[in-house]
């Protein structure tokens, strides 16, 4: 079955520290991969996406993610976290066909300690 | 551009009441989607419409109906609301695969629905 696992429900980091949010997926073929961020009371905003090519992708707000096919992972990283990064982060996978139905992980809530 | 808009922002219903959630996009996108978001479960797809005139079920379609009114609008209807449908509902759209924005879904701000 297709699924996305985000093993960390909550993560707390100090401002200025580095961040890594984990995402593992189970999918029949190489899917499209995404990270979205949701601030409280808001919709989802795309941080970055992977379709093909370079396995290290850069996104907005200083985020990057690395696709590792052998580990079925797509972890999100940021070298130095800012207080404004506190939000919920969702990893998602989708098929390379016209239906494009995304499957979301359960999310990781990031708390930033001053 | 307003992007994806949803109305209403908040709604409280009693069990058994009906209502329609409205969604519109002004990006000329072909595909539109309805998700529900529940704590600890991420977003789950209710229905989607790959193009005007077509709709299809997602992961959790029971208790819902949809209408793709035209290319811009995609509504979600609850015929007889139940407490289990208390959730935050998000609409999203996606463009042509080869066109601008064709590789990502754009989300609306959400509708917070409570069923008593």
Description of the structure:
The complex is a heterodimer of chains A (114) and B (116). With 114 residues, chain A is an all-beta fold. In chain A, 0% of the residues lie in helices and 51% in strands. Chain A has strands at residues 3-5, 10-14, 19-21, 24-26, 32-38, 44-50, 56-58, 64-68, 73-78, 87-94, 103-104, 108-113. In chain A, the strands form three sheets. In chain A, strands 2, 5, 6, 10, 11 and 12 form a six-stranded mixed sheet that branches. In chain A, strands 3-9-8-7 form a four-stranded antiparallel sheet, with no helix packed on it. A two-stranded antiparallel sheet of chain A has the order 1-4. In chain A, strand 7 and strand 8 form a beta hairpin. The N and C termini of chain A lie far apart (41 Å). With 116 residues, chain B is mainly beta. The termini of chain B are far apart. Classes of the chains: A mainly beta (114), B mainly beta (116). The A-B interface holds A 4, 6, 9, 32, 34, 36, 42-46, 49, 51, 90, 92, 98-107 and B 4, 31, 33, 35, 40-45, 48, 50, 56, 58, 90, 92, 94, 97, 103-110.
Question: Which geometry of chain B do the CA atoms define?
Answer: globular
Tell me about the largest β-sheet of chain A.
6 strands, mixed
How much beta of chain A, percentage-wise? over 45%
Residue-averaged pLDDT of chain A? 91
Radius of gyration of chain B: 14 Å
Considering DSSP H and I runs of 4 or more, what fraction of the residues of chain B is helical? Answer: under 10%
Number of strands of chain B: 11
What distance separates the N and C termini of chain A?
41 Å
The ordered string of helix (H) and strand (E) elements of chain A is EEEEEEEEEEEE
Number of helical elements of chain A: 0
Helix fraction bin of chain A:
under 10%
What kind of sheet is the major sheet of chain B?
7 strands, mixed
Percentage of residues in DSSP E strands of chain B: over 45%
Mean pLDDT of chain B: 91
Radius of gyration of CA atoms of chain A, rounded to a whole number: 14 Å
Structural class estimated from helices and strands of chain A: mainly beta
Sum up the overall morphology of chain A in one term: globular
């Amino acid at each position: 079955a297709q699924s996305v696992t985000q093993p960390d429900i909550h993560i707390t980091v100090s401002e200025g520290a580095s961040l890594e949010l984990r995402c593992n997926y189970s999918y029949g073929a190489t899917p499209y991969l995404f990270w979205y961020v949701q601030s409280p009371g808001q919709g989802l905003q795309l941080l970055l996406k992977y379709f093909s090519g370079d396995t290290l992708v850069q996104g907005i707000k200083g985020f990057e993610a690395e696709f590792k096919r052998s580990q079925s992972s797509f972890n999100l990283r940021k070298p130095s976290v800012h207080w404004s990064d506190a939000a919920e982060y969702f990893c998602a996978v989708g098929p390379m066909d016209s239906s494009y139905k995304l499957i979301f992980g359960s999310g990781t809530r990031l708390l930033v300690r001053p | 551009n307003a992007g994806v808009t949803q109305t209403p922002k908040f709604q409280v219903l009693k069990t058994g009441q009906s209502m329609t959630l409205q969604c519109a996009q002004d990006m000329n996108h072909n595909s539109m989607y309805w998700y529900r978001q529940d704590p600890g479960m991420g977003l789950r797809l209710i229905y989607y419409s790959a193009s005007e005139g077509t709709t299809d079920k997602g992961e959790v379609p029971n208790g819902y109906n949809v209408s793709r009114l035209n290319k811009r609008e995609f509504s979600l209807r609850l015929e007889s609301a139940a407490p289990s449908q208390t959730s935050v509902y998000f609409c999203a759209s996606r463009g042509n695969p080869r066109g601008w924005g064709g590789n990502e879904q754009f989300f609306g701000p959400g509708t917070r629905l409570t069923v008593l």
